[in-house]
Amino acid sequence: MCQERAEISFRSCFREYAPEFQLLETLISLEDIHLVQVATLDLLKRHPDLAGIYVWRWELPRVQLWNHDEARYR
Description:
This protein is an all-alpha fold.
């Protein structure tokens, strides 16, 4: 429930203060680093103009997400 409230607040803030931004649907990672990596790389391929990624309560080591694939997305 806490995650749901955080997402509702986040989206509400964007609607009010930055309506020109298009927010994509939420991706659930289940805190699985492989799933996070695959989903993020797919997201970057489908949305090359992505301005940012909002992460709520991420407990995974961030450095593991970007390995040898990182150079393709700079």
